[in-house]
Design a protein that fits this description.
five-stranded parallel β-sheet; 5 helices; alpha/beta; about 30% helix
């Protein structure tokens, strides 16, 4: 049991999103939004396939999916666990992604762009990884308008310093 008298409040979270699937992107967005709502400084850093969440070019940020192959925790909204072999069935990923989006709509979870607007309005900051941008041949203008900048990993670490800061990798 921890001694709460020595605990100091969290001041900053720096969240790294490296995957472009619904569950990882939304985990990052929910955590960042929760932070700004609690008055905690929040910085989101999108790298590798996580860049899809902030890429307006080709409307990739609106085409996120839930992977079905190799996802042993996958279950339908009714709680039924989906056997991993079913992920290989043609159309399964599209159907699963559609069901996830419908369930999120029922809970009034906003789409990616609206979620990011809320985070930025609350003082959160959104960044893209320079290495991943170069690798995927993306330019700043390909990204969501509220992306504050394109950073190297070193620049991200520089802004991640400070007492009571956490780096979270989703």
């Amino acid at each position: 049991m921890s001694d709460k008298s020595n605990d100091t409040p969290l001041k900053k979270v720096c969240i790294i999103c490296a995957k472009g699937n619904i569950e990882d992107v939304y985990a990052s967005l929910v955590m960042a939004n929760g932070a700004v709502m609690e008055g905690i400084e929040a910085k989101l850093f999108f790298t590798f396939f996580g860049l899809d969440a902030i890429t307006k070019k080709g409307k990739r940020m609106f085409k996120l999916h839930t992977p079905t192959v190799g996802n042993p925790a996958l279950r339908f909204p009714n709680g039924w666990r989906v056997p991993t072999w079913m992920g290989a069935i043609p159309g399964m990923e599209g159907m699963t992604s559609s069901m996830m989006k419908k369930e999120m709509d029922k809970l009034d979870i906003p789409p990616v762009d609206e979620f990011m607007e809320m985070i930025v309005a609350g003082g959160g900051e959104i960044y893209a990884c320079k290495l991943a941008m170069d690798m995927f041949k993306l330019k700043k203008e390909d990204l969501y308008d509220d992306v504050k900048g394109v950073l190297t990993v070193g620049e991200f670490y520089e802004m991640s310093g400070g007492e009571n800061t956490q780096i979270i990798f989703t």
